[in-house]
Amino acid sequence: MTFRLRAVRAFALLVGFFLMGAVLLSAMAVLDWLLTTRLFTAQAAWLEGTVLTVTVLLAAAIVRGMFAFLRAGRLGPVSDAVAVTPEDQPELWEQIRIAAEVTGQRPPDELYLDAVVNAGVAEHSHLLGLVSGRRRMRLGLPLLAGLTVPQLRAVLAHEFGHYANLDTRLGAVTMRGRKAVVHTVQAFQQGGTRFHFVIGALYVGYARMFLRTSQSVARHQEFAADRMAARHAGRDATAAALRIIPVLAGAYTHYLETYAGMGTSQGALPPVGEVHGGFRRLLAVRTGERLAELSAGQRPPRPHPYDSHPPTAERIALIEELPTDDRPSEPADGTAALTLLRDTDRVFAALEERTLSREAALMRRRSWDDLVMARAVEDADGWSRPLRLAVARALRSSAQGAEGTVPARRDATSEEAVNDVLPGLEEVLDAIDRGLLWMEVADRMPKPYQASRLTGPSARNFIRPEIFDGLAGLVHLRLVESGHARPDIAWSGRPGLLLPEPWEKGLDDAIDAAVTDTPDTAPLRALLTGRDCVSV
Asked: Of 524, 376, 497, nearest to 437 (Cα)?
C-alpha cells in the first residue's frame, strides 16, 4: 500500500472516531423513542425510566468526548516558560523564520523558552487539522545550551517539517489527529463515573486501532522531516543533533539532581539565574564521551507502543545514507546556539520566576561554594552518624559491664542511645585501638534484615564499607572545622571537598588500614598530627 493510500485510510479512521459518537447517540435516540412509544406499557414505566436515565447519562459522556475531540487542538495559557518576541531576540527569531521558509511553512506567532531539553511546534487547529490557526513554538534553554547553531537549524527544520505537506496533506492531518485522539481518551479517563468508563472503553479500543493503523504514516512523516532538516542544515549536523539530544537530556537530569538541587535539604538554591543557567557551566567542561557518561547509568524511557518516533539509531542511519553535501564539517566545539540569545542571564532569571514553585521561590540564595560546603557537611554527618552511634553504645556497654550493671541492648535505636554528645574522631580511633571495632561496634551498625544473621568474615566484609564511610565522614568534618577543606564545585566530576594534599594522597589507605581485620589506626593518626592539618 502506498503512503498516500495509508494516509487516506488513516484520515478515514480519524473521521470515524468522531462519527462513532454520532452513531452511538443516534442509536440511543432510536432506543429511547422505541421505549416510549412501542415497547413498554404503563405497567413497566419504572423500567422505562431506568433505561432512559442510563441512556441520557451515557449520551452526556459521549457528548463530552466529542467536544474534547473537537477542542483537542486548542492552545491554552503558558505558565512555565518565558515569552520571547522578535524585538527581544531578533537573532533567534531569524533562525526560526529561515527554517519555516525553507519548509514552506509560516513562522510561529508565539515563541516560548522553557526548561526542557526539547523543541516543538503546536498549532491551534480546527476541523481535525484541516484548518490551521495560531502557531506556538517552544524551545528549551538547556537544548540551546547544548546544541550548536547548525544543529539548532536542523531541529527547527524538523519541527516545521511536521506541518509541511511532505507527501500529502493528509500526512500532516494524521499527525494532528493522533494528538486529538490521545487527548480525547484522556478526557474519558478523567471523567470519574462508571458511564465515562463504559463509553471510554469503546473509544480506547477504537483509539488503539487508529494509532496502530496510522503509526506507519506518522513514522513516515518523521523520516521526511529528518530529510527536510538534512537539506536545510546539512546531513552531518542533523545526525549530530539526533545523537546529542538524548545525551543532553541525561546530562540535564544529572545536573538538576546533583547541582541545582544540592541545597534543597538546607532550604537553599543557587544564585539567581543559576538554577537552570548553571547547566552552561557543566557543558563548558564536559564534552563528547565525558558528557555521555552522565546519562550512562540512567534507564532510557520505555518506548510507547504507538510512538510516532522511530528508533533514533534508525533515523541516524537513514540520514547518513543521504549523499554528502558541500557544507564543511562542523567542529566538535562549534558555536553554541545559546549565543543567539541576548542578555542570557536575564532570560535564565526570568525562566526561574516562571518555573519555581512558590515554596522554592522563597528559599534563600547561596553561592555555589556555600552550597557545596553545606552539602558536604551534611553528607559527612550522615556518613559518620551510624558509626558514632555504634561506638557510643559500645563504649556505654563496655563501661556498664565493667561496673557489673546490665549492658545496653544491642538493638537499641538512636533515640534510645545516650543523649550525651556523640564521640568524635579521636574517641572512635581509641575504641578501635581497644579492640572494640569487630567485637562490639560492628555488631551495632545498622544492617538490613537479610544480613542480620551473617557472622565472621562475611559479616565483616558486609559492614566494612559502612565503617569506612563513617571514618571518612569524621575526617571531612574535622577538616572543615579546622578550615583545611575547601569546597570544590567540580563541574567536570562531582561536587565535594578539596582536601589538603597529604589527605588526598593518603586518606583511603589510612582508613583501609583502620578497618582491616586487624585494625591499625597509626596511619590515620599520623595524618591527623601532620603539619598541614589540625592536631589531636
From this structure: 524
Least confident of 138-142, 194-198, 249-253, 467-471: 194-198
Identify the bridge partners of residue 120 per DSSP, sorted by sequence position: 138
Q: Where are the alpha helices (DSSP H) in 306-418?
A: 312-320, 344-355, 358-361, 368-402
DSSP per position, 471-515: HHHHHHHHHHHTT--EEE--TTS--EEE--HHHHHHHHHHHHHHT
Residue 458 to residue 442: CA distance in whole angstroms: 12
Strands 119-123 and 135-140: antiparallel
DSSP 239-266: HHHHHHHHHHHHHHHHHIIIIITTTGGG
Of the candidates 152, 150, 148, 176, the residue with the CA atom closest to the CA atom of residue 162: 176
CB 499 within 8 A of CB 507: yes
DSSP 366: -
DSSP 418-470: --SPPP-HHHHHHHHHTT-IIIIIGGGS---GGGTT--HHHHHHHHHHHHHHH
Largest Cα–Cα distance in the chain? 105
DSSP 8-state class, residue 380: H
Are residues 134 and 75 in contact, defined by beta-carbon separation less than 8 angstroms? yes
For the chain, what percentages of helix, strand and coil (3-state, to nearest 5) are there? 65, 5, 30
The mean per-residue pLDDT over the stretch 463-492 comes to 92
Would you say the C-alpha torsion 117, 123, 128, 132 has a positive or negative sign? Answer: negative
User: Is the pTM here over 0.85, yes or no?
Assistant: no
8 Å CB contact between 291 and 247: yes
Q: Between residues 308 and 260, which one has the greater pLDDT?
A: 260
- Strand-pair category, 496-498 with 486-488: antiparallel
Give strand pairing partners of 336. Answer: 148
CA distance 337 to 241: 12
Pairing of β 364-365 and β 486-488 = unpaired
The residue assigned the cell 470515524 is 16
- By C-alpha distance, which of 22, 17, 61 is closest to 192? 61
Q: How many CB atoms lie within 10 A of CB 382?
A: 12
Phi, psi at 28, each rounded to 5° = -70, -35
303: left (phi over 0), alpha (psi -120 to 50) or beta: beta
Helix (H, G, I), strand (E, B), or coil: what is residue 335? coil
Distance of CA 149 to the CA centre of its chain: 25
- pLDDT digits 0-9 by tens, 494-531: 899 999 888 888 999 999 999 999 999 999 999 988 74
In angstroms, how far is CA 468 from the centroid of its own chain?
Answer: 32
Contact 243/288 with Cβ under 8 angstroms? no
Q: What pLDDT score does 133 carry?
A: 74
Query: At CB < 8 A and 24+ separation, what contacts does 24-33 make?
Result: 24/58, 24/62, 24/199, 24/202, 25/59, 25/62, 25/63, 28/55, 28/58, 28/59, 31/55
114 forms beta bridges with 140
Return d(Cα 158, Cα 143) in angstroms, integer. 15
